[in-house]
Amino acid sequence: MASPTSSTRPASWGLALLWLVSLSAGCGGGAPDAGGQAGRSGSGGGPVATGGASPSGGSPGTGGVGTGGGTGTGGVSSTGGVSGAAGALATGGTRATGGVAGTVGGGAGAGGAAGRAAVGGAPGSGPCDIYQAGNTPCVAAHSTVRALYAGYSGNLYQVRRASDKTTKDIPVLSAGGYAASSVQDSFCAGTTCTISIIYDQSPNANHLTKAPAGGWLNNGGLEANATAARITANGHTVYGVYTTSSFDNDAGSVGYRNNKTKGVATGDDPEAMYMVASGKHTNQWCCFDYGNAETNNIDDGKATMEAVYFGTSTQWGRGTGNGPWVMADLEDGVYAGGSTAAPATNTPLVASYVTAMLKGPSGNRFALKGGDAQSGALATKYDGARPAGYSPQKKQGAIILGIGGDNSHTGEGTFFEGCMTSGVPSDAADDAVQANIVAAGYGR
Fold first, then answer.
1. Model pTM score
2. DSSP 8-state assignment for residue 16
3. Mean of pLDDT values over 161-173
4. What is the pLDDT of residues 345-364, one digit of tens each?
5. Suppose 378 and one of 161, 271, 336, 371 were both cysteines; which one would form an S-S bond, judging by CB atoms 3.0 to 4.6 Å apart?
6. Where do the domains of the chain lie, and which CATH numbers do they carry?
7. What is the mean pLDDT of residues 222-248?
8. Catalytic residue among 223, 294, 331, 431
9. Do 58 and 414 touch, CB atoms closer than 8 A?
10. Per annotation, catalytic residue among 294, 306, 372, 406
């Protein structure tokens, strides 16, 4: 059907819901000229939020920095070949010893650096060190919170000052550490700032900037309010990427994209990705995504994207209960499993901070995992066949954050960190990454 005119735009979110539920196309529908997301240009969606309130649950935890920070135990090579997760912690900033042996997939010492020196109170190795040790290196690594490599000493993101439009890079406190948020606070004092670049910490320089115009974003995406997601991590004040939503295609909403990437999987090549997000800032619309998408900003059909989604969407697939769920946006559908039916294993992920993970091997299979980013292990939410029509994959290799592959912009969430890999990491590597995330101290 044709895109709605101004005289037919919805006057409320309720009408928008009725319209959106009627859609059969994925992640906000087909291309704009093919109908898809009714009500997207509706005035009922209201103006785009400029930053919004901090997500509930995102305030600093009361526990503070863990005491002691002594030597990590159990850091010797495990039978699975993964460095001992306990050796990665050293929350007090002291040197964790004994964690150097073991790599993902077996062997000793070749990059299994869970026991490296903790810098600035951060864990002694990053997720990308773990992935590298298992021969599934990061092709993209984004975070406004911390370094995702133990040796990373560059900038995490850039902010833009509203008063004079100048920009400032925000570095880490020291190699492998947390964001130097005081640099942002000083630069933005007396005015407001937005996040203009989220730097890729991998060698591929797959940096994210606001989404270009196209698809459902007539004028492109917006930059996130730089202070809307203020939290603590192991006692350090840091900021996340707070995304907003809108049903107005001209006003748009917060969303980031890179259509000219290096090293990202294309076609049916294997990959995996995860993000740490707020468990409290979600909605039911399409699509709060992080991952692989089309390079032209429009819906190119089934299997042309593969991104991890977190939220309560039931427009296509869904999990059990009321959500929120970890799901896969595969274009023309967001799936909790191998069909639109709710798999019994994909239960709601209820936590203040969540780890959402998607594994996409070549062939007719994919897996979803999720866990509490503050404690505990990952749970497998689905591991099985792809939905009908989604194998082989036709991935194009762009990277999106906070929007769908066709620039769908009605989903909401808060992003803190995420990585994409070349190849599919082992389950042992997944567990080691989750332990590393827990050790990073979100909300503490």
1. 0.78
2. H
3. 98
4. 999 999 999 999 999 999 99
5. 371
6. 6-60+226-439 (2.60.120.200)
7. 98
8. 331
9. yes
10. 406
